[in-house]
């Protein structure tokens, strides 16, 4: 029996009548195997007030009418502060007199949980003349008189005498990362002296950057 006759016999048999149905079912199964559903969800990004905020310290003024003086202006978002410090030239050719600002800026944790200050860096140091003698930035657990070496040793600190920046290294009490518990403060303190070549009205600028989680 040739192929044509076999096909005709199948088409007129019960199996032959089922073949189109089986063929359609097979095609449907094949097509269904390539169908999939992608699930997704709606997302909303909400702007919140951060738990950690900057607050001007008691050694800071809004403006200066006498010197020594430091000014701190905190932005309305509480994440940025503009700081002004006064240093002084001296006729002495040895180490110039230092000026201490021991409660200049506070980092306040207003949240309900602890947060970690992972780093504090000094960068973008610049001067309009040759005024920079030495400036040290401290991060302290309490407001201290850092002119006392024992107190200063408890704080994390970084000292720069040139335009090269860096990160605060750990003290005996304040290590980096530093855990700031709920409703507590960390204190930024600055000590600086001008170079022997300092001239009044010249400026030294630098940035203090916090990284926290």
- Note the beta-strand portion: 35-45%
Helix-strand category: alpha+beta
The spatial strand order of the largest sheet comes to 1-4-10-6-7
Number of domains: 1
Low-confidence runs of at least 5 consecutive residues? 6-11
Write down the overall geometry.
Answer: elongated
Q: Output the radius of gyration.
A: 35 Å
What percent of the residues sit in helical stretches (DSSP H or I)? 10-25%
Question: Could you tell me how far the N terminus lies from the C terminus, measured between alpha carbons in angstroms?
Answer: 84 Å
Q: So how many helices? A: 3
The secondary-structure element order is HHEEEEEEHEEEEE
Question: How would you describe what is shown here?
Answer:
This protein has one domain (about 50-210). Helix content is about 15%, strand content about 35%. The protein has helices spanning about 5-10, 15-30, 150, and strands at about 50-55, 70-75, 80-85, 100-110, 115-125, 130-140, 155-160, 165, 180, 185-195, 205-210. The chain has a five-stranded antiparallel beta sheet, with no helix packed on it. Strands 5, 8, 9 and 11 form a four-stranded antiparallel beta sheet that branches. Strands 2-3 form a two-stranded antiparallel ribbon. The relative contact order is 0.19.
């Amino acid at each position: 029996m040739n192929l044509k006759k076999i096909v005709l016999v199948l088409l007129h048999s019960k199996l032959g009548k089922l073949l189109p149905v089986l063929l359609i079912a097979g095609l449907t199964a094949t097509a269904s195997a390539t169908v999939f559903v992608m699930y997704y969800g709606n997302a909303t990004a909400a702007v919140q007030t951060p738990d950690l905020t900057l607050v001007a310290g008691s050694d800071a003024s809004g403006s200066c009418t006498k010197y020594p003086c430091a000014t701190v202006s905190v932005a309305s978002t509480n994440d940025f502060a503009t700081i002004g410090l006064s240093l002084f030239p001296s006729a002495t050719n040895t180490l110039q007199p230092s000026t201490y600002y021991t409660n200049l800026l506070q980092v306040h944790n207003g949240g309900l949980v602890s947060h970690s200050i992972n780093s504090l860096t000094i960068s973008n140091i610049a001067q309009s003349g040759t005024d920079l003698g030495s400036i040290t930035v401290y991060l302290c657990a309490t407001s201290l008189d850092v002119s006392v070496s024992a107190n200063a040793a408890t704080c994390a600190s970084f000292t720069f005498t040139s335009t090269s920046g860096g990160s605060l290294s750990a003290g005996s009490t304040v290590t980096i990362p530093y855990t700031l518990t709920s409703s507590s403060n960390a204190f930024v303190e600055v000590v600086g002296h001008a170079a022997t070549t300092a001239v009044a009205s010249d400026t030294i600028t630098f940035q203090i950057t916090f990284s926290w989680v």
